[in-house]
C-alpha cells in the first residue's frame, strides 16, 4: 500500500494549484479528508467534522481555478507510472476499449456551459456529463481517461482524443460503442485514424426492412452510404453493417436482433455478439465507482471534474493492487490507505522525543 499512497500524493501535488508556504495543511491532510469522503460517499465538510483537518472549501479551493488540462495531466502522469505493471500482467496482449457516458446529478439552478438539462435521477435539476474510456482485457478493467462534456461539445473530437491518449499506453484491438454514440461522423473519424470499431447501431425503417427479409439466426452484411452535416455541408461515409436476426447466444438468453456498424469481419454471429458483450463490463465499473463517490453540490466544473477523475484514480489503484498483489474489496482498500495516511499525519504531529 506504500506505493498507492505515493501515487495519490503525486496526483494531488500535480492537480492542486500552488498556494503560499504558510498554509497550515500538508498534502497528506487533504488526502485524509478526500479518502474519508470516498469511504463514506459523503460531503467533504462532513468528513472534516469527522476526522478534522481542512474544510471542504479549503480542499476544493486548491482546484476550483485549475484548468481541465492540469487535472487530466495529473491523472495521466499516475497512469503512465502504473501501466507498465498492468501491461506485463496482460502479457502485452492487445486490448479492447469501451466508451460510455456518465451523468452525475446536479441539484440547483441549471446554468453555465457544463450543467446539462437532462435529469438522471428523481429530484435532480440537471447533470454534469463525462465521456469515459476503459480498457478491457478478459475480466480486467482499467479507466484510461474521462473528459467533461460541455453543452454543444464536439463528441467526436472528445472520443478521438481519448483513443489517441489510450494508444500511448496499450495496443488496441477494437473500440466498442453503445447506441449513444451512433453518428456517421464518428464512423468517418474512426476510419480516418485506422482503428477497428464496433458500434451497436440503432434500428430504423431501413434496418427493419432488412430484418423482415432475413431468417431467424441469419447473419447478413451490407454497405450503406451514410450522411451527416458539418460546416454547412453534407458529407458521405461508406459504412459496413452487420445484421443478426433473433440470435440466442445460449438456451437461457433471449433472442435479439443485433445491428452493428463495424470494419471487422468474423465468420460467425457469436464472434460479433461476444466482442460487443465485452463492453457491458464497463457498466460494472460505473456501479463500483458509484460506491466511492464524493458528494458535492457545487456547479464549479473544475471541482466536479477533479472529483470525477480522483475517483477514477482510486479505482485504478485498487485494480492494480487487486490484480498484482492480493484480493481486496474496494472499501477495504480505501480504508487501508486512509489509515496509513492517518498514521503518517499523527507521526508528524507527535512531539520529538
Number of helices: 12
Q: Which structural class best describes the helix and strand composition?
A: alpha+beta
CATH fold name? Transposase Inhibitor Protein From Tn5, Chain A, domain 1
In order across it, which strands form the biggest sheet? 3-2-1-4-5-8-7-6
Quaternary assembly: single chain
Gap from first CA to last CA:
28 Å
Kindly state the mean pLDDT as a whole number? 89
User: How many structural domains in the coordinates?
Assistant: 1
Helical content (DSSP H or I, runs of 4+): 40-55%
How is the topology of this model organized?
Elements lengths: L1 H14 L11 H14 L3 H8 L4 H5 L7 H22 L5 E12 L19 E12 L2 E10 L5 H13 L4 E6 L6 H9 L4 E4 L4 H8 L6 E12 L2 E15 L8 E7 L6 H9 L3 H10 L10 H24 L5 H20 L4
Parallel strand pairs: 1-4, 4-5
Antiparallel strand pairs: 1-2, 2-3, 5-8, 6-7, 7-8
Helix pairs in contact: 1-5, 1-11, 2-3, 2-12, 5-11, 6-7
Amino acid at each position: 500500500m506504500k506505493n498507492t499512497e505515493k501515487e495519490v500524493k503525486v496526483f494531488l501535488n500535480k492537480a492542486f494549484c500552488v498556494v503560499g508556504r504558510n498554509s497550515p495543511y500538508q498534502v497528506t491532510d487533504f488526502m485524509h479528508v478526500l479518502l474519508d469522503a470516498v469511504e463514506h460517499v459523503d460531503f467533504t465538510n462532513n468528513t472534516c467534522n469527522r476526522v478534522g483537518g481542512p474544510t471542504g472549501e479549503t480542499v476544493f479551493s486548491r482546484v476550483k481555478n485549475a484548468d481541465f488540462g492540469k487535472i487530466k495531466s495529473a491523472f495521466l502522469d499516475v497512469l503512465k507510472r502504473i501501466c507498465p505493471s498492468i501491461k506485463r500482467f496482460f502479457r502485452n496482449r492487445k486490448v479492447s476499449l469501451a466508451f460510455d457516458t456518465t451523468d452525475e446529478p446536479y441539484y440547483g439552478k441549471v446554468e453555465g456551459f457544463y450543467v446539462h438539462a437532462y435529469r438522471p435521477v428523481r429530484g435532480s435539476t440537471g447533470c454534469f456529463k463525462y465521456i469515459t474510456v476503459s480498457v478491457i482485457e478478459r475480466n480486467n478493467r482499467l479507466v484510461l481517461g474521462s473528459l467533461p462534456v460541455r453543452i454543444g461539445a464536439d463528441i467526436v473530437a472528445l472520443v478521438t482524443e481519448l483513443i489517441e491518449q489510450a494508444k500511448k499506453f496499450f495496443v488496441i484491438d477494437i473500440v466498442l460503442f453503445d447506441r449513444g454514440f451512433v453518428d456517421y461522423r464518428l464512423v468517418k473519424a474512426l476510419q480516418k485514424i485506422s482503428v477497428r470499431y464496433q458500434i451497436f447501431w440503432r434500428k430504423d425503417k431501413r434496418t427493419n426492412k432488412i430484418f423482415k427479409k432475413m431468417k431467424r439466426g441469419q447473419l447478413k452484411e451490407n454497405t450503406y452510404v451514410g450522411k451527416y452535416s458539418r460546416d454547412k455541408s453534407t458529407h458521405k461515409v461508406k459504412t459496413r453493417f452487420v445484421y443478426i436476426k433473433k440470435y440466442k447466444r445460449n438456451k437461457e438468453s433471449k433472442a435479439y436482433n443485433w445491428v452493428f456498424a463495424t470494419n471487422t469481419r468474423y465468420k460467425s454471429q457469436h464472434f460479433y455478439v461476444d466482442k460487443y458483450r465485452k463492453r457491458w463490463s464497463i457498466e460494472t465499473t460505473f456501479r463500483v465507482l458509484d460506491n466511492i463517490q464524493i458528494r458535492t453540490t457545487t456547479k464549479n466544473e473544475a471541482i466536479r471534474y477533479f472529483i470525477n477523475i480522483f475517483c477514477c484514480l482510486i479505482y485504478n489503484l485498487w485494480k492494480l493492487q487487486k490484480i498484482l498483489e492480493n484480493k481486496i474489496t474496494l472499501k477495504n482498500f480505501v480504508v487501508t490507505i486512509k489509515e496509513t495516511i492517518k498514521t503518517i499525519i499523527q507521526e508528524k504531529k507527535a512531539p520529538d522525543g
